[in-house]
Amino acid sequence: MTKRIPLLILVVVTCGGTTMAETNIHQLPEPRLEGGKALIDVLQERRSIREYSTQPLTLQEVAQLLWSAQGITSREGFRTAPSAGALYPLVLHLVAGTVEGLASGNYRYDPHSHTLEMVVAGDLRPGLAHTALDQGWIQQASAAVVISAIFSRTTRKYGDRGVRYAHMEAGYAGQNLFLQAEAMGLATVVVGAFDDDALKALLHLPTDEQPLSILPIGYPRQAITD
Ligand SMILES: Cc1cc2nc3c(=O)[nH]c(=O)nc-3n(C[C@H](O)[C@H](O)[C@H](O)COP(=O)(O)O)c2cc1C
Questions:
Q1: Which fold has domain 26-223?
Q2: Distance between CA atoms of 152 and 103, rounded to whole angstroms?
């Protein structure tokens, strides 16, 4: 026991009085649960947009977007998007470039605690564009959400068909996020063309996690008034 004391002191000094866990995990603001644009207008106006302004996203906006895709909306743990057997194979990552209050990096979203945990530090957007078969415009977006799946969560019950279910669920979660972005005046697009292995390596995804889609997000370029 006594041998552990110097280690504890070292952690406190190194982190300036806070624990490592506190510096890596960010509590997100609560999502807005009332009001907003009429769904019928959002459906009418939704369009893929690949040109973004330099205006950063706020933490509140990022929180709303992540919640829209996988937020928990009932005491039983059900979420904004449907899931086969309520087994929830999806994992969301936020690749933050310019997000107010958040250092650039890759973060994993935990829907239970509504938190982001940093996985990789640094601006990964140029690398993200490169892994997406050099679709260079991706790096102009303030951030991107990467939807991935841990297939075993679903195949454990449904066998190989569970892989299909996970892909379907990525579509539902992605469309939720797309419509939420549209309702907030933000711009996004689904990117399916990317090198799976390169993206996994860039984001430091665990081996059992498969990336399924990328949604770059920012303010649309035409919205700049200055
Ligand atoms: C599964 C899927 C993969 C896609 N992959 C890409 C992509 O890699 N790059 C891209 O620029 N757009 C991609 N798109 C967006 C489509 O090009 C776009 O949805 C289509 O042009 C229709 O335009 P709209 O979304 O504005 O209605 C993808 C869309 C889907 C559904």
A1: NADH Oxidase (3.40.109)
A2: 32
